[in-house]
Amino acid sequence: MLTNAPRGTKDILPNQANTWQRLENKIRELCKLYGYEEIRTPTFEHTELFTRGIGEGTDVVEKEMYTFTDRGDRSITLRPENTASIVRAYLQNKLYANASLVKLFYIGSMFRYDRPQAGRLREFHQFGVEALGEKNPAVDAEIILLAWEFLKSLGLDDLKLKINTVGCPACRPIYRQKLTEYFTEEADELCGDCRRRLEKNPLRILDCKVDALKDFMDDAPKIETCLCDECREHFNGVKKFLTEAGVEFVVDNRLVRGLDYYTKTAFEIQYAPLGAQSAVAGGGRYDGLIKEIGGEDTPAVGFAAGLERILLALELQGLVPPQDKKISAFVVSGGSSAEVYAFKLLTDLRRKNISAAMDFGKKSMKAQMKAAAKSGAKFALIVGEDEVASSTVTIKNLETAAQEKISVDLVPEKISQAVGE
Ligand SMILES: [Zn+2]
Ligand SMILES: [Zn+2]
Predict the structure, then answer these.
(1) Nearest bound ligand to the CA of residue 165
(2) From ligand 2's centre to the CA of 193, what distance in Å?
(3) Counting ligands in written order, which one lies closest to the CA of residue 171?
(4) CA of 135 to the centre of ligand 1 (A)
(5) 8 A C-beta contact, residue 122 and residue 7
(6) Ligand nearest 202 Cα, by number?
(7) pLDDT tens-place string over residues 49-76
(8) Cα separation of 36 and 115, whole Å?
(9) How far is the CA of 250 from the centre of ligand 1 (A)?
(10) Which of 316, 349, 377 is the last residue of a domain?
């Protein structure tokens, strides 16, 4: 028990860390390019923020949240996603006062009590962006492009962008009514979950995995027939901007988000080889959320991408390079006076930005030379009593086996020249 992490959590070990760093660097680079600034919100929030911000009746709120009462008797929840927290931070810190459009990104851990499987953990990591304050469909397109270019820049092929519109509070009720009527006639064929959704949230029936292939799904009413002028125009705008940017997309009428504050654009990027977990990024517009959380009526759009799934995709495509842990120099010492001399040399090298290591196990020089070879270092720096007495170092090129004795002062320069550090 003590030596097992909780179910659904995972250590990111040193040999995986550079892949994570590469991913995070790419995110930071790209967000800078698009003018999105990083925000870091707390890992936990008041539970009510999520029940309001994600919506009662959703799976996340009903079944998946890590909620507990703290010692001050407050109901606290580990964030299951970050959009609600960002809206809270936007309102609390009056970020809207600085700019009409606020563009933010985040990278962090989220928590959901869900059945763990490949690419889906209970503590998982998301990268996401949010653009708050603008209703222009160009912003939807910008967000979609950012997600798309991010995944493309990692080298992933086989990506598919699906977009849809889910209407707005003016036109969605009409569509909802049509769907309710249509699916009521098919109620006997619907799965148990969908029979419940029929009452509360008929739109979600459209993305039911269980019922997806049943005949009646194809003939279900399409939202196009119900859209108001504003929603139609907005959706046409998104499509126009994406087309202009040269991004291929398909319109998928079954792509829905169930809650009232999700409006207009919905999108998802899939990486087909991941099968059932193929969605690697998804998002859309949420023009009603900021008001729901207590702000002014403010349009907003965003997306989130699951980093574990993206890593799985990279592995599937052989895009995870081996860990590079090579160092430039390995210091080998003989005798106790040499050890102090060696330690000083080690420190000087590091201060001059040269990566260096030594073996602290007081092993024989032969064993230390083996350790030097194993470390992948380009040079072994050998110091024994002779070198200490003459302020020199025997520098051995471990690739060519050539060695020479030089003044200790010349060592950093010699290595820098050789390895280009
Ligand atoms: Zn509408
Ligand atoms: Zn169903």
Answers:
(1) 1
(2) 6
(3) 1
(4) 13
(5) yes
(6) 2
(7) 999 999 887 889 989 999 999 999 999 9
(8) 33
(9) 21
(10) 316
Domain end call among 286, 316, 346: 316
Closest CA to 322 of 119, 18, 24, 27: 18
101 closest CA partner among 135, 143, 144, 145: 135
pLDDT bracket for residue 379 (50, 70, 90):
very high
Specify the DSSP element, H or E, that contains 147: helix 137-153
Lowest mean pLDDT among 293-307, 315-329, 394-408: 315-329
In terms of domains, do 164 and 265 share one?
yes
Contact 285, 299 (CB under 8 A): yes
The domain in which residue 19 lies consists of: 14-171+227-316
Q: How far is the CA of 145 from the centre of ligand 1 (A)?
A: 24
- Are 42 and 130 found together in one domain? yes
Q: What is the domain count for the chain? A: 2
Nearest alpha-carbon partner for 162 in 255, 246, 245? 255
Q: Is 163 domain-assigned?
A: yes
Residue 207 lies in a domain: no
- In a 3-state reduction of DSSP, which class is residue 412? helix
Give residues whose Cβ lies within 5 Å of ion ligand 1.
Answer: 167-168, 170-171, 228, 231
> Among positive and negative, which fits the CA dihedral 345, 348, 354, 360?
positive
143 Cα–ligand 1 center, Å: 21
Q: 294 and 343: one domain? A: no
What stretch of H or E contains 382? Answer: strand 379-383
333 plus 311 within the same structural domain: no
pLDDT tens digits, residue range 262-303? 899 999 999 999 988 899 999 999 999 999 999 999 999 999
Centre of ligand 1 to C-alpha 285, Å, is: 12
> 337 C-alpha vs ligand 1 centroid, how far in Å?
80
* Ligand number nearest to the C-alpha of 174: 1
Tell whether 386 is covered by a domain.
yes
Average pLDDT over residues 231-244: 98
Residue 184 lies in a domain: no
Report the first-to-last Cα separation within the chain, whole angstroms.
45
